[in-house]
Amino acid sequence: MTRPILFFLHLFLSFLIFSNSLYAQGNMKITGILYLTHQPVEINIEHGIIVNIETLAEENGIDDLPIIGPGFIDVQVNGHSGVSFTDQGLTAEGVLKATEGLWKEGVTTYLPTIITAEGELIRQNLRTLNKATNDKKLSKSIPGFFLEGPYISPIDGFRGAHNVKFVRQPDWDEFDSFIEASGHKLLKVTVAPELDGAMEFIENCRRNGLKVAIGHHNGNASQIHEAALRGATISTHLGNGCANTIHRHNNPLWAQMADDRLTPTIIADGFHLNADELSVFYKVKGVDNLLLVSDITKLAGLPPGEYDWNGKTVLLTPEGKLRLPDLDVLAGASFSIRKGVGNMMKYTGCSLAEAVQMASTNQAEMFGWEDRGSIEVGKRADLVLFNIQDDEVLVEKTIIDGEVVYTK
Ligand SMILES: [Zn+2]
Fold it and tell me: Residue 286: inside a domain, yes or no?
């Protein structure tokens, strides 16, 4: 063959390989056990979208197949892999690092969470998060952000690990500057309903399309019900963010449990709530009205020990418990949401399908993310492949938009 012909042949082959790789992006077939039916299926994905789910005959042996569920959705993540979204000096690279750490845990969508801090720090970190999520890859995992505080109870116990120095009354002008800094990606806020101006604040948030959660509060029953009437729809980590000793009748728990307008988020890491509390919330609210969250911090995945955290000593115990020894309160969690899936089955006796619903489907419905949260034809292929051993979900593979982002 002459040189020009060889050259054009080379060019043609290169084009074929290139166009094929373009076509192949987001295309795959996955075989596993569907979490809903416990039957083997083959899921066909094209351009990141589930186009077909075929049930397979069981005679081929299903023992070695992983379970396939929708990727976990965690709407309260303070940080991961040594990166905190509230720390000074947060960078886009840090956001990517934390996100990659969460992919290993089967989390495909999450809300980076900033907690009570000085106003300029909150604005700065919201700007950083906004910038980071202009990246296409990260935007698939991070649809928006959550601000837990700073308008919460200043009282010890109810305040939890939030710094009292920065706890304040609701201030709409300031909050508006937060919305602006976030590039209008602030989706959720936690407020204490008993604070001056809290009800107007809740209404303003609702008008601006934000989800309002009540939490870290000592609101009485009428304040809680009024907050729900004004538009609060979520109770932040119900059963936590509460003093250790409370009145048996007049306390923030009963009214939140009784009010059907409030969907609690719960931390089912085995430390924040005990088995009976988890069972009660599950029975009272029902599987459709509970959201598992991790409340995971930047110390997740690090070895046990004492850590300095903005001048405070935080203790990570060998069992995975995070405590502020000075105040004798929990300082967030170290286990990701997959731990909660296993614990809900263990402590409440719920099915795997129900536990996954509380870790993915309910979140997608609450926030209107119609392209994810379940495995159906037409949905984005955000999937987690896992096994279960001793009530623990062990992630094998995480897929987002038809692309593998983590393999064990
Ligand atoms: Zn909290």
Answer: yes
pLDDT in tens, 73-100: 999 999 999 999 999 999 999 999 999 9
Domain presence at residue 3: no
How many whole angstroms from 216 Cα to the centroid of ligand 1? 6
Query: In the structure, what pLDDT confidence band is assigned to residue 226 with cuts at 50, 70 and 90?
Result: very high
- What is the pairing mode between strands 72-77 and 107-115? parallel
Number of domains in the chain: 1
Distance 89 CA to ligand 1 centre (A): 22
Q: How many Å lie between the centroid of ligand 1 and the Cα of residue 351?
A: 28
Number of C-alpha atoms within 13 angstroms, CB side, residue 257? 16
Which residues are found with C-beta within 5 Å of the ion, ligand 1?
160, 241
CA of 43 to the centre of ligand 1 (A): 38
CB 71 within 8 A of CB 35: no
CA proximity to 397, closest of 103, 157, 191, 90: 103
The tens digit of pLDDT for each residue in 286-304 reads: 999 999 999 999 988 788 8
Task: Give all strands (DSSP E) within 236-346, no chain letters.
Answer: 263-267, 291-293, 305-309, 312-316, 321-324, 329-333
Which CATH number covers residue 220?
3.20.20.140
For ligand 1, the distance from its centroid to the CA atom of residue 237, given in whole angstroms, is 7
Ligand 1 centroid to residue 50 C-alpha, Å:
36
State which residues form the domain around 170: 71-371
Is residue 100 domain-resident?
yes
141 Cα distance to chain centroid: 10
Distance 215 CA to ligand 1 centre (A): 7
CB burial of residue 324 (10 Å; 0-12, 13-18, 19+): middle
